[in-house]
Specification:
By secondary structure, the protein is of the alpha/beta class. It has 16 helices and 15 strands. Among the domains are: about 180 residues, no CATH class; about 110 residues, no CATH class. It is about 50% helix and about 10% strand. The strands form four sheets. A four-stranded mixed β-sheet has the order 4-5-7-6, covered by helices on one side. The protein starts with a helix and ends in a 10-residue tail after the last strand. This is T cell activation inhibitor, mitochondrial. It comes from Anolis carolinensis. InterPro entries: DUF4460, DUF4461, TCAIM.
Length: about 500
Amino acid sequence: MFCHWEAVKRLCFKKLQQVVQTRALSGADAINALRPFYFAVHPDFFGQHPREREINENSLKRLNGYLENLQKPGFRSFKPIQLTFYVREREQNLSNVQESFSSSGFRAVSFTLRTRDLLSTVLDILNSCSLSTEHLQSLSNSVNTSSNPGTQKPFPRPIKWDKTYYSFTGFKDPEEELEQAQRMETTLSSWLDNNEKSAEKKLKDSLPLREELDRLKDELCCQLQLSDIRWQRSWGIAHRCSQLHSLSRLAQQSPEAPRNAKGRTVIFTDRSGMSATGHVMLGTMDVHHHWTKIFERLPSYSELQKKVLLLEDHISHLLGGIQITYVEELQPTLTLEEYYSILDSFYNRARNSRLPFHPRSLRGLLIILESDRYAPSLHELGHFIIPTSCDFSALLWFIITNAQQAREKLEKKEELMKLEKQLVEAAVDKFCLQRLYKEPSVSSVQMIHSCKRLLEEDLLPYLQGMHLCISHFYSVLQDGDLCIPWNWKSGRHTQ
């Protein structure tokens, strides 16, 4: 039976691939076709798994950018994009694909997109995640009909599986899930009603570890004369304490090597090295031997740091005095070597293109270079985000036409940051919060919007003494932090 099912899937996939050459898929059609995929990977379903949730959130952003670029007329500069998603598990027995299944009900799937049209991209995504493409058969029929009006019309009814199909296979009915989600729209007060007790207990249980974490951090900063100790990911308190204990043991066993980090910031992250901003990166999966090697190599990085600064100056000169910057909160974590390589590649291309910027005409403006973007953009805080592989004629036009708007945004940046800080302090005072913070992916404008609305609510019984995080979804973290979406719904206006 399963062999027959796989044969049917392969046959449908081949037939649908033939459609790619006839007509491009519309953006709305692509979203509808990917509905099962979005249900399987949406970050809201990974509230108790912060790491997997963050990976899916970042991968969705990159995928959406890829899909947007596919719809741009005349866009030809495509770069293969590798994505990793954690997919909610439905029925392991129906898949022969070798994937990494976890006991938590999801599996890790990695794939690379190289397609140049929406339909073949949608097919690649669904097949890579072992999701059915049967619902695309109706799309195939409509496309063939529109491209060959003289041919006989196919059966007009789109395929819709009987409810027994989902009962016997274990698959979830996307339409039923969507209807249920719409019926049970979560409001802030209702969610707090259901989760406040759980968060309060988790927070109470975590208090001794929180005190231990603060003590360990202060001791290590003082002992090693570090500027700061930070974490790249939202690891739990117990995990962070364990990492600090490991660093403390290293300092006791090999006291000489960590002294090279004097005055620097140490960041616990996924890999070891020196970051683009000059911070010491300690990979949480590495053993003490790797950490010791990094500390010993720190003095040798000084020459590479000088080369990075020199390249930034050269690029700035070519771009009319615009300043090259690296924003840790907004960009992927890069090693110093990776950042140097990006700068060097961009500089060589910019030098050969002979950009006609007037010297110092763009002084005061900022740009960020990113290797995984396809089109330039202007951030709400005023800096340009430029793809390293962009077309320089398009870049020239984009910067010139948006320069004035960028200056205006930069002038308002301090005002925006100040307003955000004031609103956070006001909300902390009003609700007697222990802490109010946001995830890096939440913008200042979104944070301001959320805090203004919070100050209009009467939520004191729920939030007193809590740690509140403004995010993109609802969840209670393992240490009791409450996460709410920045655009949460108020129960006062629901019907």
